[in-house]
Amino acid sequence: MRREADAMMTNAQATPDAGGTDCFLSLRGVTKRFGGLHALDDVSLDIRRGEVLGLLGDNGAGKTTLVKIIAGVYQPTSGEILCNGMVERITSPDRAHHLGIETVFQDLALVPNLAVADNFFIGREMTYDIVPGLIRILRKRKMETDAAETLKQLDIHIPSLRVNVDSLSGGQRQAIAIARAMRWKANLVILDEPTAALSVPEQNKVLELARKLARQGVAVIYITHNMNDVMAVTDRIALLYRGRLAGELLTRQTNQNEIVSMIMSGKPPASAQRA
Question: In this structure, what are the phi and psi dihedrals at residue 187, rounded to the nearest 5 degrees?
Answer without folding.
Answer: -95, -30
